[in-house]
């Protein structure tokens, strides 16, 4: 695909317009300018996921709603690169596009925020807890089936404001976004990885480009963190094998241990009554294989039945 550019040293970087998305785009911009000696212009793109805030993601099409318009801008040549939170990117990309770089991962854990309570265990019976994620809902209800889980959409600052105004007793957000915005002081508890598995790719940024744009691909590659990319590759391979989306609770997280990758994953029901968990170790240089193998194990242990039932309900 040949796209006319304004200048050989200009890269146009597509991003959502939220405070966190702009922070992420500014970070990538500075790194590209520093490492590739390019001029970078951020192009804000409003996505359907940003525009529709009065319904759960599972009901309106899933997390792909946060990347569709940005990918269209890439394909049309309006932008040369796009920066995403990897956890928002579906496992299947549009033809002609690739995630060409994955930046070093921030804290992958989920965070508990509350005005009046120090940790999840301190919430009283029936407390209102806000989250937009079926993955979080599933794991929270496994620990605290008494809680009232209330849908919570919007940017990070909007969600925190709603909690501080008394709409929720607590909320759960990704720690990475809070830390990037400098709001660590609002976090009351980090939910431990061995008890609360994060979303696939949580904490990592992905840079997307047209696969045939050698200049943009080469520039983005300078920001790639190999260890994060391998871990995220395993997680996304697991997700792809499970054919997962926002309609079902799926979680996955990989870490490097010596020369191996250790991948943990889960499939569960939204009410937390049934959760299938598994972990597997594999060669660091074969992350996709590891992801597929763990997915198959999850399916065999009962995940297939859960997923089939949930997808039938979603289609009904």
Secondary structure layout plus pairing:
Elements: E1 10-15, H1 19-36, E2 39-44, H2 48-51, H3 57-60, H4 68-76, E3 81-85, E4 97-102, E5 110-113, E6 128-131, H5 134-143, E7 148-151, H6 156-164, E8 170-174, H7 175-180, E9 189-190, E10 205-210, H8 214-221, H9 226-242, E11 250-257, E12 260-268, E13 275-283, H10 287-315
Parallel strand pairs: 1-2, 1-3, 6-7, 6-8
Antiparallel strand pairs: 3-10, 4-10, 5-8, 5-9, 11-12, 12-13
Distance between the termini: 40 Å
Shape: globular
Number of helices: 10
Q: What is the CATH superfamily classification of the largest domain?
A: Periplasmic binding protein-like II
Helical content stands at 25-40%
Would you give an account of this structure?
The chain is globular. The protein has helices spanning 19-36, 48-51, 57-60, 68-76, 134-143, 156-164, 175-180, 214-221, 226-242, 287-315, and strands at 10-15, 39-44, 81-85, 97-102, 110-113, 128-131, 148-151, 170-174, 189-190, 205-210, 250-257, 260-268, 275-283. The chain folds into 3 domains: 10-103 and 203-224, Periplasmic binding protein-like II (D-Maltodextrin-Binding Protein, domain 2), CATH 3.40.190; 110-190, Periplasmic binding protein-like II (D-Maltodextrin-Binding Protein, domain 2); 235-315, Double Stranded RNA Binding Domain (2-Layer Sandwich). Residues 1-6 have low confidence and may be disordered. Helix 9 (226-242) packs parallel to helix 10 (287-315). The strands form 3 sheets. The chain has a 5-stranded mixed beta sheet with strand order 2-1-3-10-4, sandwiched between helices. It has a 5-stranded mixed beta sheet with strand order 7-6-8-5-9, with helices on both faces. It starts with 9 loop residues before the first strand and ends with a helix. By secondary structure, it is an alpha/beta fold. A hairpin with a 6-residue loop joins strand 12 and strand 13. It is 36% helix and 23% strand. The longest helix has 29 residues, at 287-315.
